[in-house]
Amino acid sequence: MAVSAPRSVLVYVGLDLMGDALMKMPFVRALRDTYPQARITWLAGKGKTVFSGPLAPLVKGLIDEVIEDVGIGSDWSELLRRPLAGRHFDLVIDTQRRVLTTMILRRLRCDTFISGAADFAFSSVRPPRGYKKPTTMIRQILDLIEVASGKKIEERLAPLYDPDSYARATALLPDGSVYVGLVPGAGGRHKCWPRERFVEIGKRQAARGRVPVVILGPDEIPWHDELKAALPEARFPLQEAPSRGIKPTALLTIALAARMKAAVSNDSGGGHLVAAGGVPLVSLWGPTVMEKAPPQTPTLITVLARTFGSMAMEAIPVEAVDAAIETLLTKQP
Question: Which of 36, 50, 186, 276 is the most exposed place for a label (fewest CB within 10 A)?
Answer without folding.
Answer: 36
